[in-house]
Amino acid sequence: MFERVLIANRGEIACRVIRTCRRLGIHTIAVYSEADKDAQHVRLADEAWPIGGPRPAESYLRGDAILEVAKTSGTQAVHPGYGFLSENTAFARACMEAGVTFIGPRPESIDAMGSKAAAKALMEQHSVPLVPGYHGDNQDTDVLAEQARKTGFPLMIKAAAGGGGKGMRIVRTEKEFTDALASAQREAASSFGDTRVILERYVEHPRHIEFQVFGDTHGNVIHLNERECSAQRRYQKVLEETPSPFLNAERRNAMGEAAVAAAKAVNYVGAGTVEFIVAQDGTFYFMEMNTRLQVEHPVTEETLGLDLVEWQLRVAAGEPLPLRQDEVQAHGHAIEVRLYAEDPDQNFLPGSGKLRRLRLPAPSRHVRLDGGVIEGDAVTIFYDPMIAKLIVYDADRTQALQRLREALAECEIVGPKSNVAFLERLTRHPVVIEGHIDTGYLDRHLDEFLTGDASPSEHVLFAAATAALLHDERAVVAGAASSSDPHSPWSRADAWRVGHAGKRIVALSLREQRYEIEAHGHDGDYQLQHASAQCEVRGARFDGDALSARFDGQGIRFAVHADPERISLHDANGQRHAFARAAAFAWESKEGSGGDQIVAPMPGRVVLVKARAGDTVEVGQEVLVMEAMKMELALKAPRAGTIESVSATQGEFVEADAVLVRFAS
């Protein structure tokens, strides 16, 4: 086994690899960019070395800088994690030439599967089922358009060197093809430095099921069962689970055999994933093979009781696979979701900033957290905005889903906006509960999973106000206890007045709407009023996690988090309501930029400017395209009118809230 391993990655996966190495007694070496000098993987590793500027191209994509650290630090092996250089043939080969073991497949295997087009040609030779389409070398636009007509619509354009949903577009009609192709090629060039694409017939309402495969240097290749990843938004996985609720034993065996055949076709060594697109009738087609560990590998680990990073290390060190195919035994059900700094109600706009509060469920046999940040850390604009992976396990799927709901209810993220509430709605949706979701369902029915503009019920408002009152009263009493006069009547927060019970205003805001609740009473007994609605609260108790009280005589319990800045609670349906605390007697409405300008929603690079000063545009017309946090953002006209000025240029890096376009008055 290796004694010194360098992790050529960052964030959650770097921390994940470090944990296994530490358990095995392996000395870990981290590398970091300027933006990551205080990151958790830097703090967890036994030693850490700087490799360049904040952008990936200046640091984590610099194989030369990483190998220089490997040489200087006495590294024996490099673990590439996933993303960055994990599927880079040149880097894998450079490691070998430098006498450093690359913990991954041979360069030839990466080459064979790194191009979707080449992979499909190879799979065709080994009788692995393929979706009809075009994966040829001729990338002339006219040729691609002709092949698209032959393939038929709807079809999928995919970046040939791609992965992670980048450079993918669905095209339903011939007239959409040219623009979609250009957009996919731009994204492919930005993400992979390669504009080549393949075309595939689009399978309607497909499922995405992938098989974990593992090979060793002794010629053994096995699969470790499937993961269903059909819950996707814009080809990005949202929820992953194993076993698949769709597969029966016969389908599982057939797909497992095809996955092993695909791996054997390239003499595969190490961890890999063979991905299939599955039609509603159970027919399956090879989609691609990822020659690395996958983000969702923990669900496989939880059901098999294995550590796949340990397997990677042992196989790379020349050991045979620890199990034969007939020894792979799965138990229970596991589900993973990814907690992201993003705003689902603003088209999942990625967020950045300091995590002022990060409260996650306690790890247990049923709950696992794989993260790369802690409270106080910043989510930076330069990398993927993932905060943590939340993995749950239980005896069956129904119980695992309930574990997931309970775990999500315990999550509280303050700072950048997060997708926690979106995930909570997802886990309660019938299409997920019944296991019927397909890869396009979220995109077709996204409004079913978003907050919307619905106002909170009076019950929710009164519960939030009660939690705020109890929290504030407790805080005042605690403050008085540490003061020079702990028994002073002026230390009470009950608004008592001579001759009457006094009145307090609890002011809350939700989605820029202000709510004022008038309160009389103290110590858990209150008379509350909002507009014309009234409520008598009796026996209220708040233990920091839950509020229980009798509301107009009915006993109700709410899961609640409260602090001086916000009140977050779940109603009886599991719906999350995150109120901001507001000043009782002051209110300033948030002023937007109005309809006379387009501003950058976040820091990023302008990749396309589609209008000039003097142009007349329609409302909703695409004016600019930005790239930020590994995704393209289309900036559209807020109203119809004439453009007065465009201050953005193609290739320019702009800061958040920078005015890019102004409209004439």
From TrEMBL:
Residues 120-317 form the ATP-grasp domain. Its cofactor is biotin. InterPro entries: ATP-grasp (IPR011761), ATP_grasp_subdomain_1 (IPR013815), BC-like_N (IPR005481), Biotin_BS (IPR001882), Biotin_carboxylase_complex (IPR050856), Biotin_carboxylation_dom (IPR011764), Biotin_COase_C (IPR005482), Biotin_lipoyl (IPR000089). Residues 1-447 form the Biotin carboxylation domain. Gene3D superfamilies: 2.40.50.100, 3.30.700.40, 3.40.50.20, ATP-grasp fold, A domain (3.30.1490.20), ATP-grasp fold, B domain (3.30.470.20). Keywords: ATP-binding, Biotin, Ligase, Nucleotide-binding. NCBIfam families: PRK08591.1. PANTHER family: CARBOXYLASE:PYRUVATE/ACETYL-COA/PROPIONYL-COA CARBOXYLASE, METHYLCROTONOYL-COA CARBOXYLASE SUBUNIT ALPHA, MITOCHONDRIAL-RELATED. This is Acetyl/propionyl/methylcrotonyl-CoA carboxylase subunit alpha.
